[in-house]
Design brief:
Blueprint (H helix, E strand, L loop, with lengths): L12 H20 L5 H39 L5 H4 L6 H10 L9 H40 L2 H14 L4
Helix pairs in contact: 1-2, 1-5, 2-4, 2-5, 2-6, 4-5
The protein binds MU-OXO-diiron.
Length: about 170
């Protein structure tokens, strides 16, 4: 495991705490919701839609403010690192969004259709989570050390401030 970096230059841990909190909340909700109950499902989908946007926003913030900067820095130093090039290439989040979209008319669906939809949604969400948790660990354990290696301490302090602000965590 990579050594912990000082909190003021740790750009991943705080946003990831928020992401993990959301993952835990929706993992639990998904297990508890009664997919036979139309209004209950509609309420779940509204909240989940908002949460998936937050995951997507997290990914965009990282792409723009962290990964692109890291890629540029490595390029300037003529270093190739393929992990950095495509760290958000997996589309499992998009898969959950797609399944969620198919649930738009779920309130009017039959109970059988709602249960089948629930199963698809749970599977897609579980699949996303099983990829997302190790992905965040990789960012903390592989990309954070790369940032420390290739950026000045003061640059990373500023980067962390920007990242927290973009996540609305300050
Ligand atoms: Fe921090 Fe790319 O998830």
């Amino acid at each position: 495991m990579a050594p912990r970096v000082p909190d003021e230059i740790d750009v991943f841990t705080a946003p990831h705490s928020r992401m993990k909190e959301l993952v835990n909340i929706y993992t639990q909700k998904m297990q508890c919701v009664d997919f036979r109950d139309g209004p209950e499902v509609v309420s779940l989908l509204r909240g989940l839609d908002f949460t998936l946007r937050e995951f997507k926003s997290h990914e965009s913030i990282e792409n723009i403010f962290i990964m692109d900067q890291l890629k540029n820095r490595l390029k300037q130093r003529q270093i190739t690192n393929t992990a950095v090039c495509d760290c958000h290439g997996d589309n499992r989040l998009a898969d959950v969004v797609q399944v969620l979209k198919t649930g738009i008319g779920v309130r009017q669906s039959s109970i059988g259709e709602r249960l089948r939809f629930g199963l698809r949604l749970q599977r897609a969400f579980d699949d996303f989570v099983s990829n997302f948790i190790p992905h965040m660990e990789e960012e903390e354990q592989v990309f954070q050390p790369l940032l420390v290696e290739h950026f000045e301490y003061e640059e990373l302090k500023i980067l962390k401030e920007v990242v927290l602000k973009e996540h609305e965590l300050v």
